[in-house]
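Q: What would this complex look like in 3D?
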Amino acid sequence: MNAFAQYAVDTVSVGGLYALTALGIGLIFGVMRLINFAHGELITAVGYGLLLLSGAALPVAMAGSLAIAVLLALAMERVAFRPLRGADPETLLIASFAVSFFLQKTLALTVGARAKGIDFLPRLGEPITILGLRLQTLQLVTILTSAVLLAALSWFLARTRWGLEMRAAAENFQMARLLGVRANRVIAVAFALSGVLAAAVAFLFVAQSGTLTPRMSLELVVIAFVGTAIGGLGSLVGAAVGGFLVGAASVILQTVLPPDLRAFREAFAFALVILVLLVRPQGLFPARGLKERV
Amino acid sequence: MRTAALRRLWPLAALLLLILAIALAASLAPVVIQRRVVEVFILLIAVVALYVFAGNSGVLSFGNVSFMAVGAYVSALLTMKPTAKAVFLPGLPTFLKAAEWPTVAAALAGGAVAAAFGLVVGVPLMRLSGIAASIATFAVLSITYVVLGNWTSVTGGQNSLFGLPIYADLWAVLPWALVTVAAAFLYQETRSGLMLRASREDEIAAEASGIDVHRQRLYAFVLSAFFSGIAGVLYGHFLGVLRVESFYLDMTFLVVAMLVIGGMRSLLGAVLGALVLSLITELLRQLESGVALGGITVAAPAGLGDAVLALAMLLIILFRPQGIAAGRELAWPFGRGARPIASDKASGGEIR
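A: Here is my prediction, written as structure tokens for the whole assembly.
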């Protein structure tokens, strides 16, 4: 029973991080059919922002690096993706690859490709005991942050005017525009939100790993990408659930696979993606209005 | 009548002549430059191989580099000296331990195994279209990377695999480059190639006209996997060392970038993309190692080439989405009536 609770906490904290990353990607895909591979560079930018501002007080450093992520997301949209609006998803995917590589290589060029250590929120690494379970504080913080952000995002999408516009745009962009939704604004808001989500993920991720490299978010984004694909591109519920599922799958595979197969667990996750795509090409929670009508 | 046939084959002949001319020029150049040209030819094979599938079908594949990896490791295992294998790969199955094949046979085997792998993943994957297909090929890339990186008894896992015979010099690579380009051109002129190109323009209309899109895509995918495998084989025997890392995102990005920048919709685009980008990266590499300017050596920071490559790709997508070649093949330059042969009336303004 105790072991089970331990696994449950592991699953939820790992899954929460993936779900937040997947949501950042899913938000953008919803409004403009773009799989933003450069989402990872937002996370990386926040990490290096924290390093840059490590002399300042903690809230200042966090707010500053959050601002970096939001501005970078907006700049990305303005410079690279706005001219391509309406291009087909593959073109957009290639463009985001190019943006991602450009930012990553430019960062490596300026700060060097070698890993840098960063001591961000070291107290989160301490273990605490709750109801007989020994947990890392960070795990609890991750779970709490994910829960709060998911709730806030659901509230935003369900209850606010901008949220409503975003859902309308995700369902049928053309129709939403005809009914008075401003394309530029709704997309900019989506990018800004994805910047906020990236910052949250970066805080948790950096506190956990303690190191920075220009490629640090690659694995995270690839896994979140898997989550979005499994959950259903364009569906926000799908992205969140998909992210959780991938987190759960990796914790479960880690425990049930025999030791010499454990290294292959990512291969199993990707095989799962192919399987889901074959059975349900639109994902587990298909978004409405995605299939082209003839 | 003879000119008609010549005209029809001109786009191919011109490309072959171009490659031959580069090879001849390189054979007179110093060894360092020759090695660069060999590398360019290997990349050219990889880009043209990707083009065979992605260019003709309009579905971008991120998985072709995994076929390169398969080809490279198969050929490595078949050609390495048994003594070297005993040192680096003690856990190898016995039939592989003793194998010491001639290089050409091993290269063909590498291509064949890559093609077989392409067939196995292609049968289910080719049912997918558009973005789902791209994601699935990406999944294939990641699976291959994880499996090869952890299958220590056969690939050496995270360690580099040393001791490959280094035979891929200019004269070993040139024939493969010519064969690959010729095969790509002849394929796109066949009935099967034309049907696939029709499905690229409009999948639903093609299906309505009785084209089995799934089957045609599969043919192209397997052919593409074969030549990707060959590119991997040559790359391994060019470097003499294999690392799983070499066949992952960076290589994928390089090959895709070359194809996109050159222009995905024509063979000319694939060839030009590989050549032009190699030239630019080479110039940047020279800059990185330092240029003497009036007594002082000015060196660009290392890694500049990669950043410029990414930027070039972004600019091309933004401002010339059809790539350098814009879907055209080389036209017959002599006399009137010159027209592009490969029915490339590009309809959309976007790369697909």
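A: To summarize the key features: The radius of gyration of chain A is 19 Å. The interface with chain B takes residues 35, 80, 83-84, 87-91, 93-95, 97-99, 101-102, 105-106, 108-109, 113, 218, 222, 225-226, 229, 233, 263-264, 266-267, 270-271, 273-274, 277-278, 281, 294 of chain A (CB under 8 Å).
Q: Very helpful, thank you.
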